[in-house]
């Protein structure tokens, strides 16, 4: 296995790891956020959210050496945006941990709940849109994966971004039908990308567009 194939494999595994951690975490913390005393379930949710933050950073670290061969600015932007997303997730996990200790009936519980929701709006909502725009552009320009995969991300990114702004402006909530529908393309993009990276890796002709723009000579992505 070549180093690039190994990086792509790890990136795919970590992308799939975001699904393994995020959806169970949402289910486990819902009772506590709804006012029910389920501290043990919520504690496991916090563990999963912390792990989710690590997987977010891991995907960026694994893909950076590959993405920079197509566009270093976009690759750096992806690492930065993914790191910000992870930071917001950790802020949300911190609020959840404090809420677990205080209990849903504590005086400061509503503040912690709002902080948690705001952190996840800025992280997995806003920043996921930015991630998709940056990495999707790299994948499409470099032809690293089938075109349909980054196209899904590039179409879904503005939808999720507009939906997130709608939440900020009070037009609807994160858990509304509009919010759910707007998030589906990004979920499909990340899931399909993760599966492709695990099964196939990235294509050899990835850096060809750089040659057309007068940049550095193309570098083979895989052997």
Automatic annotation (TrEMBL):
Q: What is this protein called?
A: DUF4386 domain-containing protein
TM regions (residue ranges): 43-67, 74-100, 120-140, 152-172, 178-199
The top of its lineage is: Bacteria, Bacillati, Actinomycetota, Actinomycetes, Micrococcales
UniProt KW Hydrolase keyword: no
Organism expressing this protein natively: Microcella daejeonensis
One Pfam family assigned to this protein is DUF4386
For this UniProt record, give its keywords in alphabetical order, as a comma-separated list.
Membrane, Transmembrane, Transmembrane helix
Does this entry carry the keyword Transmembrane helix? yes
